[in-house]
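does this look right to u?? 3-(2-carboxyethyl)benzoic acid version
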Amino acid sequence: MRDKILPLHSTSLSLAEFSKQPERWQKRVLGAICFSTEINESQMQAVIAAPCARVPMQRLDAGETVCEVWSGSGQLTQGQSNAIHYRHDDDVLFGVITLSEILFTAGVEKMPLQQAAESAYRQVFALLDTLHYPYLFRFWNYIADINSTSFGLERYRQFNLGRQDAFLAHGRDVVGNVPAACALGSSQGPLTIAFLAGRVAPLYIENARQVSAYQYPLQYGPRSPTFSRASLVRLGQDEILFLSGTASIVGHTTLHPADVVAQTRETMTNIEAVLAEANRLASQPCFDLSSLHFRVYVRHPTDLAKIRTELTHCVGGKPKAVYLQADVCRQDLLLEIEATAGHPFSSFPTNRD
Ligand code: 3EB
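got this back:
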């Protein structure tokens, strides 16, 4: 597989492993998301020349930094536009935008984080219009202190206001055809957003067990979150599934508020429902739990063992999973799980349990 041209694929590896990859491999990297509480921006950039989101989150299942690296094919072009760093091939564009809220002052109408989110998303949409990659596959959103309240509104809800305003400002749908996403909290750091976009429209997938997030009622904030439960992208012979952050929500309600085992089971039931829908829409119904690559965001590190046991049980074998400490966007959610599947993965770190 090493030298075969793959349209879009991801690899999870440590920064040390990245640096050992041959140059011809590194040249095909579109971009990366690196989770680390130790490595700083310049240490990261010294290793990875491609656009890279640094997310200050602790890995729980192993000591090392873990980077999700997205690779493309053919000739890659790199650029910068405003605060966005991007790389693209002919089919796909990966970008990263980092914005500090300090750049924005609290106005009469808009809060700094809301403005930062709106500005970031507006920049992304403008770039994609200019370079002609109109279809968003997936957003990864990382927000400091996601659950704290300022200006009378939880910060996640402030983010949702700015995000939706940017979609509306660019004439994009805020209901129906919206990208897959996740939104997680860290203890510090600027608003950090990574995204993948392309030239073919994905199929956007919802979960029949859940109210679509873009139709969540007002009790979850003045604006609904703008994301779908998954996106299914066809690139050449490959079908890639991006499963959004998924939690213990049925209808629009959090279930099992203080029971991490039950929340894990409910989350996996939701993932299975999304997979079933993806299989119904896919040209080949080949998605199953054992083929997913999971990232598990855990609110309380002490819950790791319980979540891991439950996930292993649900998958029916050792899952391919990375565990990170993160805050989830509702106070009562103890975990969120996201996944990708369908594309060839070139390698994956061994689980050490
Ligand atoms: C949920 O289902 C849990 O705001 O982009 C999951 C995935 C969640 C994405 C987002 C939020 C987001 O509502 C939270």
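Residues 141, 181-183, 213, 225, 227, 244-245, 247, 249, 329 surround 3-(2-carboxyethyl)benzoic acid (CB under 6 Å). idk if thats expected tbh
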